[in-house]
Amino acid sequence: MMLKRLFISIFTITLLVSLALNIYSFINGHNSESRASGLIRAEIDSLRYLSTLERNYAVWPVSDNGKMLNAQLTFHSDSTGKSDLPGFLTRAVTSPKLVVRYSDVNCNACVDSLFTSLAEFSDRIGEQNVIIMASYHNRRDLFVWKRLNNIRYNVFQVPHDQMGLEIEKKNIPFLFILFPGNGTVHQIFLPMKENTERTRVYLEYISRRFFDKRPENKTS
Length: 220
Description:
Layout: H1 2-57, E1 74-77, E2 81-84, H2 85-92, E3 97-103, H3 108-120, H4 122-125, E4 130-135, H5 139-148, E5 154-157, E6 174-178, E7 185-189, H6 196-211
Parallel strand pairs: 3-4, 4-5
Antiparallel strand pairs: 1-2, 3-6, 6-7
Helix pairs in contact: 1-6, 3-6
């Protein structure tokens, strides 16, 4: 009789343990599927958001988008000296970069407004992924400006109106994405100091599309 009760007790415990394990596996599997489904939905939402941004703010000039930089362009850096376009691309453009193009004859308020907006996205884009191409009549003034303002971006002096882009004739600062390889420019954007929200939307767009998932931009 005691053996029969013992057998029934063991059978009952085994059945309960098995049932508990099955319930745990079901819940855990359901949660994993939910998490995976949530990640997929988030990715789809992100792609839709990018599509909306590109559709609504694709205001870069078509005539310059996709053009190559002038093959004769030269670059001066206070750290690496002078280089030609192939040398610049090899050393400085090993991955997509956001380029800020301005000169000392541009409107000061426009330039200041642009850098203020850029500072808000500096961590997401990564300081190492921003290149400043500036034109100063006195090259020394550029590097003094860099030191006084504690600029951590890569800064290069380039000749006035020598980039090979029509947009330079507008005499205003602008942004674009530069890819490794042959120096082709993409996503050219003209910021307006009167509409900084538009600039932030552009920076949000390029942050999500090119830089947010970069390993070097992740912090532990």
